Amino acid sequence: MARALDEGDGRRLGDKVGAVRDGNGVGALHLAAGRGSLPVCGYLLEELRVDIDAVEDRGETALTFAINSGNADMVRYLLDHGADTEKLNNDGLTVLHFASGEEVAARCGARKDVETLFPVTSRIPCVHDWTVDGIINYAKSLPDVKDEEFCEAMLDMGKFQGREAVKNKDYRGAMHIYTKAIALNTRDASLFSNRSLCWLKLGEGEKALIDAEACRMMQPNWPEACYRQGAALMLLKVGHKCSDHLLKIL
């Protein structure tokens, strides 16, 4: 990707960025939307013309990632640029289910998301009270299938197993372990850093760079994140850029 950017080939870069995914099928636009980075989303959509409705392995689009992060501005931006609110994920749910499924008191952006999506979403047959309050009340009445303690335990186990795999130089195995851990917590910068290391060891420079950049979006001044980004650029032989990132470690 870096080489294509240096050569000024925007079309080629757009194709490459759209094709690069992690082990769960998550692409650059999903990550940017989930992190609330409007400049990155603007570049991906307006300059590189990536598919706004591209899905990851569970059938989720960038719009779902934005809703799950509680970022109303990002949701509105994606809607303004044509994001499909009717698209179903692998479980047959639309984005409105995700917007209404959070406790309003716990996440203040959720109601705003429902209000934003409501006018552009077709009626969901199982929701009898088709109002903003009715949708939220329906979603809150559904059983909560998430067990936070179980997820935390699985996350700790994944980190331990990943470290052991790296010690044994089983980098591909470690990569798969960290990918599963990221599915449990997409905001843990250390997981992206560790998976970036695995990609580096496997010679996958572009994937290592994607993870390193995601890590730096969460922890911009973390030396390890800067090192991972510089190492990925070195692997891609973009020497004039990697030195800038490596110098930030000092």
Give an overview in words.
It is a single chain. The protein is mainly alpha-helical and 250 residues long. It has two domains: 13-141, Serine Threonine Protein Phosphatase 5, Tetratricopeptide repeat, CATH 1.25.40; 147-247, Serine Threonine Protein Phosphatase 5, Tetratricopeptide repeat, CATH 1.25.40. The chain contains 15 helices and no strands. The relative contact order is 0.09. Residues 159-229 form the Serine/threonine-protein kinase BSK1-like TPR repeats domain. Keywords: ANK repeat. This is Serine/threonine-protein kinase BSK1-like TPR repeats domain-containing protein.
Q: How far apart lie the N and C ends?
A: 26 Å
Structural class: mainly alpha
Number of helical segments with 4 or more residues: 15
Name of the CATH homologous superfamily of the largest domain: Ankyrin repeat-containing domain
Helicity, as a percent range: 55-70%
Specify the CATH architecture of the largest domain.
Answer: Alpha Horseshoe
Tally of DSSP β-strands = 0
Gyration radius (Cα, Å) is: 19 Å
Low-confidence stretches: 4-10, 101-109, 245-250
Inertia-based shape: globular
Strand content: under 5%
Looking at the structure, the CATH topology of the largest domain is Serine Threonine Protein Phosphatase 5, Tetratricopeptide repeat
Keywords: ANK repeat
ANK repeats: 58-90
Protein name: Serine/threonine-protein kinase BSK1-like TPR repeats domain-containing protein
Pfam family, one: TPR_BSK1_C
